[in-house]
Amino acid sequence: MDRRMFLMSSLAAAADLPVVRLAIIGAGNRGTGLLRVALRAPAVEIAAVCDLSEEAASRAAGMAAAASGKRPRVFSGSESAWRGVLELELDAVLIATPWHWHAPMAAEAMRAGKYTGVEVPIALTYEECWMLLETWEKTGAPCMMMENWSFRRDNLAVLNMIRRGLLGRMVHCHCAHSHDCVDHWFFDREGRMRWGGEFLARRNADQYPTHSLGPVLSWLDINCGDAFDTLSSHATASLGINEYFRRRFGPDHPYARQEWKQGDIVTSVVQTKMGKTIVINYDMQLPRPYDNRWMVQGTRGLYDEARSSVYIVDRSPKYHEWEPFAPYQEEFEHPWWKAMRQPQPGADPIAGGHGGTDDLEVRLFLDAARWKKPTPLDLYDSLTMSAVIAASEESIAKGGAPVAFPDFTRGRWRARKPYFGLDSQTGG
Ligand SMILES: NC(=O)c1ccc[n+]([C@@H]2O[C@H](COP(=O)([O-])OP(=O)(O)OC[C@H]3O[C@@H](n4cnc5c(N)ncnc54)[C@H](O)[C@@H]3O)[C@@H](O)[C@H]2O)c1
Fold it and tell me: pTM of this prediction?
């Protein structure tokens, strides 16, 4: 089977594929979503599900049983029940628990020799980042953060354009995670704090940088020829959470008066070793529609996601005028998405979560476990995206001073070749 055929078959078809035995730890919102995606993928056995809540765990087990006819083992009832999951004969584990569980669970999963996929962010502090790196170096167990926006169809087409030189040499990126999560995620609809809200009381940082940075790392060859050098961050005052509670629940609600540490908008600037810059916005507590505002600019042109437009010198029809991105999406469609869009009997993978992006991401992760290949996103990139939390917190505390960014590749970024989205990554 040649490389391309391999890729197509493992993404799109079920015939004769070795079965991947998968466990899911954390069966809340996202864990259930990942389970649904995994149940749609070919040749996967959900061997176990685990959640602190018995109700969540058995609901997930019921979903798996209904879809596959086989009820997975259920682990529940204590904060350490997940350790039992790692004793099973498994190929892979997906972790979708609250943030503070990610690093300890991922480290144990690596020690148990499983393919480990961890929801975002994979770590919350520098110490957790280094601990994960050292565990990975010792065990060699493949581990990736499940940053789905790295796999988005438009972002991968842009990556293809960049690799073919359309935008020239890369210079600058802008990215954001603008997503009002105060009214449904940091707090529930009744205004009760969920686990995520606790971080807003304790930290002032870019708390959720990975969705913004997902595609940016491969666009700019970060950790593969370039690396983050310094980061500086500024935070605005924290007004949004108080305002929301005043508006929704009245001025006497305790959260309408509580002092929140987390500023509403955090703006970070990364300077790379090779002279590129990246602006990253955290923006999750003010009322607004969802937005990522990706913009990537090179010496020959730029792509602007919010405008869905490009401008490319010597190619765009009118001098210094935008042209639509849509034809470029077709012309530069990434092979992963070509494979995903092939019609399949009885299934439409594009209909899945986040427009099919989650299906692609999970299938690539499962295929890595199936064929014992490297994960589609590596640990260096996973740690780099996540370490922005700690670096931005440090810089904000120092009045916006640039802070040195950790180099998780230990200098290997100079010689490493780009890997993300290349056939050899998944095709063997
Ligand atoms: N990639 C994405 O698009 C995306 C979208 C939503 C959430 N997320 C991420 O997914 C993760 C989970 O978020 P969520 O919205 O599903 O939260 P959630 O609260 O709905 O789910 C978390 C689940 O973990 C369980 N849990 C807590 N401690 C546990 C333990 N020790 N052992 C086993 N289970 C435990 C909880 O009972 C809960 O069911 C977060 O990291 C979040 O940032 C990612």
Answer: 0.96
